[in-house]
């Protein structure tokens, strides 16, 4: 039997690599780079613990529990990524647009810059409200 077939049989019914595992490994790599400069035992232990946790997740047979953890990570990571994307867009559009939050549905609205007071309509909830630029 080939190695690939043996590995495939071994991994059958196990969790495997998911987004949380990749995030854990990237965190361990970043800590390794930081530890090159600081030579800290605590950072070294932390990066080893992260790698062991990732291996545990990959080999785990409790797929339901690992999927729940991965789903929670994806939700949190999506919010973090969305925040930084919004900040990047705000900076890119700073000369031509303003960003306001709808008071009713809390949606972020990208509005063209105009001087003075004017009324805008939220496309999600159709609420009309005034803004002052």
Key descriptive features of the protein:
elongated; two-stranded antiparallel ribbon; alpha+beta; single chain; two-stranded antiparallel sheet; 133 residues; 4 helices
Describe this structure in words.
The protein is α+β, with helices and mostly antiparallel strands and 133 residues long. It has one domain. The protein is 59% helix and 15% strand. Strands 1-2 form a two-stranded antiparallel ribbon. Helix 2 (19-38) runs antiparallel to helix 3. It is elongated and about 70 Å long. The mean pLDDT is 95.
Write the topology of this structure.
Blueprint lengths: L2 H9 L7 H20 L2 H19 L3 H30 L4 E5 L6 E5 L4 E5 L6 E5 L1
Antiparallel strand pairs: 1-2, 3-4
Helix pairs in contact: 2-3
Short description:
This protein is of the alpha+beta class and 133 residues long. The chain has helices at 3-11, 19-38, 41-59, 63-92; strands spanning 97-101, 108-112, 117-121, 128-132. The protein starts with a helix and ends with a strand.
